[in-house]
Hints:
By secondary structure, the protein is mainly β.
Amino acid sequence: MPRLNGTNSVLRWTLGSWQANGIFTAQSGIPINVIIAADQANIGRPNQRPNLVGTPSANCGSGHLIGCINSAAFALPAPFTFGNAGRNLIFGPGLVDADFSLFKNIPINERTTFQFRAEMFNIFNHPNFANPGNPATWNTASFGNV
């Protein structure tokens, strides 16, 4: 903020040497990989992909924290086959964050300055949720839960 040169010293001391800072962050969600825990293809390894039978979607956050992934979009592949679902078909909740700080520099003498500082993180108190399991294991009780 301006230094207010040419004004009286009380006004300059009160209103001068303020600094305001802000950071706003908005990010899209992280991709979620949907897997099945069973060894459906019988290759000796779990964590394979399910079949895609519908439109995969996720509505995580905004009050939807339980079952926020459309589980009806996936199905178990036939025995001894691999699923046809690709990886990272859906995206988790995004992130929105606003931080703000306000500083006031108060000169004590020529070499010393006192600084009043107020810092506020997540100033609007907006919740930012994690992905509902990554990878998200389909056909389990916790599938799609944040």
